[in-house]
Structures are given as C-alpha cells and as structure tokens.
# Entry
Amino acid sequence: MTAAVQQETAPARRSRTRVLREVLRKPAAAVSIGYVLLLVVLAIGGRWIAPHDPDVQDLGNRFAGPSLEHWFGTDDFGRDVASRIINAAAVTISAPAISVGIAVAIGLPLGLWAAVRGGWVDAITGRLADTVLALPALVGALAIVAVLGPGLVTTMIAVGIIFSPAIFRVVRGAALAVTEETFIRAADAVGSSRRRTLWVHVLPNIAAPLLVQTTILMGVALLVEASLSFLGLGVQPPDASWGSMLKAAYANQFDAPYAVVPPGIAMVLTVLAFNTIGDAIRDAVGLRRRT
Amino acid sequence: MSGRMIVRRLGGGVLVLWLVSLVTFLMVQLIPGDPAQVIAGENASAADVERIRERLGLDRPVIEQYLTWLFGVLRGDLGRSLFTDRPVTSTILLAAPPTLALAVAAIVVAVLVGVTAGVLAGLAQGSWLDRAISSLATLGIAMPSFWVAMLLVSVFALGLGWFPATSYAPMSRGLGTWASHLVLPAVALGLATAAELARHTRGCVADVLTRPYVRTARARGATTGWLVRRHILRNAAIPVVTVLGLQTGRLLGGTIVIEAVVGISGLGTLAVNSVLQRDYPVIQGYVLFCAAVVVLINLIVDLTYGWINPKVRTA
# Structure
C-alpha cells in the first residue's frame, strides 16, 4: 500500500527538474535568473568587486558626471555612485528576502493549520488575514514601524507581517485543493498520521504555488522597503540601500538631476527579474495567472 | 445582488473595520517598553512622562481605555494630536483633499491609459503594437511610482517647465492650476495600475473576440468600432472594476511616497511626520481612515458587479 501511495506523489517530485528546465528555456527567465545570481554575487563580494571604496569621499569632485573613472558619476560627497550601488545591493536584496522569509514563517503554518483543521481555526485566521489585507501594504508597514520605531530591522519585520496574509491565502487554498485529492484519502485510509500526510503529501504539492507567490512578493517587498527607506523610516545612514540612495539623490536634484537614474534602474531591473521568474515558474507548473 | 447579500457584505466590512480598530488601539499598548516614556523621549522629565501617560489614559485599566477609545471613535472623536493638540478627526479631514484628489486623478489616468492600451493590444493580437504594449505593461508594473515621479518632475517640470514642480493647488485657485499641479504625480501614481488594467483588458478583449455572438455580428457586417462600444467595453468593465478595487490600497499607500516626492502636504505627509514624531493618536486615526476607505471601496465594487452584469444580481 505504501508503495502505491508513494507512486502517487512521485510526479510532484520528479517534475522539479522538468520545471527548472522549462523555466530556463525561456530567454527572459534565464536572463532574469542570471541577473539575480549576479546580484547575489555582488551582494556577497561587493567590497572586493566594486571599482572604488564606496565610502571614500572626494569633496573636490562632487556631483561629477559619468566618466571612465566613475561610470555613474559621484554623489554629494564625491563618492563613486557605481561602487555605492554595488555596496548597497546586499541590504537591498537581503531585506526583502528576510521579509518574505518572515511572511512564510507566519503564513505557511497558519495556512496549513486553517486548511487542515477548518472550523473556528479557519474562521479566525481568515478574519485576521482580512484585517491585515484591509490596510494598504505601505500604510500597514508604516503603522508597524510606528510601533517598533524606524530602522532596517523593524522595516523587515513590518513588511514580513504585512505580506503574511498573501502567503497564508495561497497555502490555505493550495492545501485545501490537495486534501481533496484521492491520494490524500488513500493515505488517510492506510493509517498515515496527520503529520506524515502533511509533510510527505501536502507540502510537496503546495510548493509550486508557494514558490510563485514568494518570488512575486520579493519584488513587491523590495518596492515597499525602498519606499520606507526613501521616506527615511527604513535603512539609516551610514548604511545604504537603493531606496535611501534615491532619497539622497533626490535631495540634490538641482546639482545632479541624473543622479536618481542609476539606483532607480537597478531597482526596476531587480523587480522585473523577480516578476519574470515568478511568471515563468507559474507558467511552467501550469498555474493560472493571478488576477 | 439580493438585499440579503448586501447585508452580509456590510456585516463582513463592519467586522473587518472593528478588527482593524482593535489592532489600531493595541498599537500604543504594543510599543516595546513603557509607551509613555517612549513617546515622551529619552530625555523627558518624569513630569512630562506622567502628563503623556495621563493624556493617553495609559494609567487606567486596558479595558476601560479601550471602551473609552472605541466609543470616541464611534462618535467620530479620534482624540487629540500630541503635538498640535488639535482634534485628530479635523486634522485628517483637513489633510485628506489633496490625497484623495491625487488618488482619484491617478485612477482616471490609469483607466484612460490602461483600458485604451488593453483594447488596442487585444484587437491587434500578435502585432508589434500588442507586443510593445505588453512589454511596457511588464515594465510599468516593475517601476517604483516614486522613482517615476522623480523622473517626471526632473524632465517635465524642472527641465521643460511644462508643469509646476511641487505642491498642491486647491481647486479654489482655478481648475487649470489645480489640474496642472496634479498631472505629474497622478501619472506617476497611476502608471502601475494602468499597466495592470492593460493586461486584464487585453485578456478580456481576446476572450470576447472568440465568442460566437461577435462572429455573428462580424458576419452581419458590424464594424470594429461598433464591436468595441457594444460588446468589448461592456465586458471589459468587470475586470476593470475588479482591478481598481484591488488597487485601491496600492494607490492609497502610493500617495505617501508620491506626496513626499512632489511636496504635497496631504495625508501621507501627515502620517510620515506623525510616525517620526511618535504622534500616536494621529497615526491611529490615519490607519483607521485608510482601512475605512479600502473597506468602503470593496463594498462599492461588490455592488457594482450587480449593476454591470445582471447575471450576478441573483447570485
């Protein structure tokens, strides 16, 4: 009997390499994955890769335009903008990653719990999700930052909490759909414990929608955190993210109007990459487009 | 939509609003450490801390605090600002017009640009125009609205001087002045929504074009313009309303950053300043206001379905 049940779940596992191959076959998705990997390399090794020290000031050379020496020019302290963008990649990428991790840590167990238990657990968790969703992401994040105080860490927590209902809903929906499948009933029938059913049968089958949702949320989280940093509530100097770089660049728009371009383009490309990867995975696993 | 359905939706909305109000009330209680000390600041004297504790009622039992606060909210009394000492309700109502004008203008931009682009792409599926619109929509969704606002201000206000660069002009200064101040921020805020609308409208147009009644109409010699007016726009109305409902929150949140870029002193600016000053009564009022707007819009969207599509009325 166990063998039969395992055979039922096998397709979900075997298809993983197939999904990856299908995603990589799309040029846009392959380029996006390459771009994200490059960002990760820059985030880890930025200090050594950057052409200049991102913190060295050259006050005689403020607001210099792009040149061979300074690809994206220099900022209000004469610091090399290209090096600062590379250096800020670490915070810019890791902040949404940690936020989405927090959202999964909250939303995944609650979503599974709501789907498996149903009844009052489902009703209460569902209402809690509705409550958080009634607030615009930025407004909710602002409220949480108001409680915890401004800063990078509190911003990451705030965005994580705000996005947890999105994970919760996807997990709950996918888990409910899976529990209707025959192989789950078969597992129940052969006396598989609830925990085992959850780990071996339910989790692998909600992995795909969860992966799509987390990838898309990465882009949104990056934008929300950039917004908070731009407002001065997120990353605090001397740390820098692309959002806080935009804030500084915009404050000096009369001296260097083009300075807002490089951090913004870096941000657009990154969000674009996450969205493209998310869409490609969604198409590859045959999920419907989000509405 | 039946009367019973409307009552159920209303009830759901009221329940969510009550939960939001509960969470909002708890905001002050959840401040790590002693809330009164945190609000007063590290260097505040003991007397100042006590004064704040008393003003916020933090010296009373939590249940009593909550009931006092809740009955206040129900009467429209959100307390007083810790900094200006003005009533929060009037502070919010005073700051609301520029923000709401910006949000509504952004919706107008989004519908005009998004629906037009979506219909064009849907009618010319597979053409270069379709591909161009799809690519632009993908790009539009990935662009942070506040960055777009910076670029628009740099190019069209500071560079070309076509529009004023900053601030909001009330309608009393003339419709032209009012509109010219709103154009750039509204375009920046509405762009992502326009992109989302374009995608959904295109899908809807593509779907309608495969319907038998469209083929019949074509066979009877109907022009494309007639088809667009008679069938396509009507069918596209449903995804448009759905997307707009879902995007209300995004637009409302977006006003915060756009206001910071363009220097509009509306609700967003009020909220950010209140967070920086730890003016909790104002933040609580702002959060409740935003939640009420979102719940109300979703209710209106639900009711609109019945009006657009008679099939939903009985559901």
Q: What stands out?
A: Chain A touches chain B at residues 127-128, 130-131, 133-140, 142-143, 145-148, 150, 219, 223, 226-227, 230-233, 246, 250, 253-254, 257, 260-261, 264, 267-268, 271-272, 275-276, 291 (CB under 8 Å). Residues 53 and 78 of chain A are 11 Å apart (CA to CA). DSSP finds ten helices and no strands in chain A.
